[in-house]
Description:
single chain; alpha+beta; two-stranded antiparallel ribbon; 16 helices
Amino acid sequence: xxxxxxxxxxxxxxxxxxxxxxxxxxxxxxxxxxxxxxxxxxxxxxxxxxxxxxxxxxxxxxxxxxxxxxxxxxxxxxxxxxxxxxxxxxxxxxxxxxxxxxxxxxxxxxxxxxxxxxxxxxxxxxxxxxxxxxxxxxxxxxxxxxxxxxxxxxxxxxxxxxxxxxxxxxxxxxxxxxxxxxxxxxxxxxxxxxxxxxxxxxxxxxxxxxxxxxxxxxxxxxxxxxxxxxxxxxxxxxxxxxxxxxxxxxxxxxxxxxxxxxxxxxxxxxxxxxxxxxxxxxxxxxxxxxxxxxxxxxxxxxxxxxxxxxxxxxxxxxxxxxxxxxxxxxxxxxxxxxxxxxxxxxxxxxxxxxxxxxxxxxxxxxxxxxxxxxxxxxxxxxxxxxxxxxxxxxxxxxxxxxxxxxxxxxxxxxxxxxxxxxxxxxxxxxxxxxxxxxxxxxxxxxxxxxxxxxxxxxxxxxxxxxxxxxxxxxxxxxxxxxxxxxxxxxxxxxxxxxxxxxxxxxxxxxxxxxxxxxxxxxxxxxxxxxxxxxxxxxxx
Length: 540
């Protein structure tokens, strides 16, 4: 069975006494070749026969290279047979230019060398696509189809954006190719993509939502629609304003109270007066002397108390130290006080002003420029002074979160506690403040007119700190009410987490609140409320 192939014929039979008639191995004796002795004369003759023609060929080659001005530095080597019966030797051949090699490391779904291709006319795919799930010809056809639609779409854009159609064509085709498991799916996806591009509105600027790939354009259009649905116009949010007859229910200062309108701020500081500490509920005499030595006279809990189940029993526990209600405070400080909701007493420290009166003062002073806006967000930060809770910072933002006013307030009375944990203001920050409360309030009136709608969370505290009487109020603590009703209120961070899905005020112990972030968040959750109400109305 092996004889016909003769696979074992070249090999001698391993059995020296083999008598088989049809042995698969050979039985021929190997031919012995006698080695020629390598004498010195023989070696000298051989070397002369080889070297002589090689020298002649080298000289001829050098002359040829000198006479050729365009010869490449890269030379090829080819065997040349020497004349005169000598042996074959390898010598350098005539120099020839070597063409540059094409790039071979181009992925089928990324066009890193797109700049090498023409930016005018139909773009071309690189010819050496690797790992491409579709044939080259079909991909080039799909690229041409997409480019035709992109070129029509961008026909009104500036000439400087001519490369835009190429870039978006390559990106769209690569996305379609990567997401198509076979050729049929690829062709269908290209067709749908071309139809989608052809139905877009013609853009007239580079930031138009119709520019970009299908995914990018869809996201841009959704953003525009979301912004349109969330637009805070006067007509869309006036229904959320707090009615005047509910100001007392939610403990807001009455903007029409004559006692407040006639306040003069005749007693700016309470030094020497006896008050009850708002932290430890102990009586003390207000004084700003020897504050460092007095540190520790007040032991208090800065956290809130809430019910918890401990060992099967319901107990009220402080969030700051997990101690039970009634235990000694976990933090040392000095005694501080607050006039709270005694608006008449607050008017004796700093006089109240209504937004209408501020607008009239501007008109009398010759400042008639209308800068007030329809809707804005406001947040204030307070510190403890000898006048009680005093305004330390006011931040006003517009509908889009742009900061209109962010100013620190210069204090005119001694500071007892800067309250960094909650105010976010550090020791020394107020040294850079320029304007006092009256000046900051006048600056705020540039944006707050009598008809301006102020949005905030727990705005009654901000209005009292600013000593501002205003009627158009939207309090997000009222728009998103507590389950127990007034006067209970939900925390802003809880509402933002529930409605918007992100966290704020999560580093209170280190940095305090950011008034700009808080003011912006109140506007954002109001936008969410407007969208939800519009959607509910459309379903009815």
